[in-house]
Write a structure and sequence with these properties.
By secondary structure, this protein is an alpha+beta fold. It has one domain (about 20-175). The protein has four helices and five strands, in the order H-H-H-E-E-H-E-E-E. The protein has helices spanning about 1-15, 20-40, 45-50, 110-120, and strands at about 55-80, 80-110, 125, 130-135, 150-175. Strands 1, 2, 3, 4 and 5 form a five-stranded mixed β-sheet that branches. A hairpin with a 2-residue loop joins strand 1 and strand 2. It is globular and about 40 Å long. Mean pLDDT is about 80; it is low at about 1-20 and about 160-165.
């Protein structure tokens, strides 16, 4: 019985990760770990993961700025609870800003149109889109704007900014 269970577990893992290299597998693990850290910090976030049509988790986003700023990160994308691909995020902005920070970010989709644009690499978060900071114990109301809600959990660093810019994404579907 143990051998059958072990074989099924291995086959399940191979099926989920087919076509992924070691870096991709590690990214998915880090995204799942970031999801749990976000939920641990604020359990009300679980409802958003349960109810969203899809979400993308960027477990490690690095940001630095001195007048001109930039950020980048890689993430994993789930639709209806199933891992469907990976994503790359880049951000460039200009304005009054200085510092550096590391954070995790999750983007929730509650409508199919913005998700379709995301998968077609025709999606951008503008400077007018605000992210909700994940705080311990605070109730996190999803403020969806055009079918999208963004939550950020700081990890390290300090960054002060009053800048204009946006995030652009590339979606990489799993084979």
């Amino acid at each position: 019985m143990r051998k059958i269970h072990l074989m099924l577990t291995i086959l399940f893992f191979i099926g989920i990760t087919h076509g992924q290299n070691a870096e991709d597998k590690q990214l998915v693990k880090e995204a799942e770990k970031a999801k749990m850290a976000m939920i641990d910090k604020n359990p009300s976030l679980q409802k958003h993961f349960d109810e969203a049509d899809a979400y993308v988790i960027f477990p490690n986003v690095g940001e630095g700025a001195f007048i001109i700023g930039g950020a980048s990160g890689n993430g994993a994308v789930w639709e209806n609870g199933t891992l469907i691909g990976l994503a790359d995020m880049k951000k460039i902005d200009v304005g009054a800003q200085i510092g550096g920070a590391a954070y995790s970010e999750v983007i929730f989709f509650d409508q199919q149109e913005p998700l379709k644009r995301f998968k077609d690499d025709d999606f951008e978060l503008s400077a007018s889109m605000s992210a909700v900071l994940i705080k311990e114990g605070a109730s996190l109301a999803a403020d969806y704007s055009e079918g999208v809600a963004v939550f950020v959990m700081p990890k390290a660093g300090l960054s002060l900014e009053a800048a204009v810019g946006g995030q652009q994404f590339e979606f990489i579907p799993l084979n």
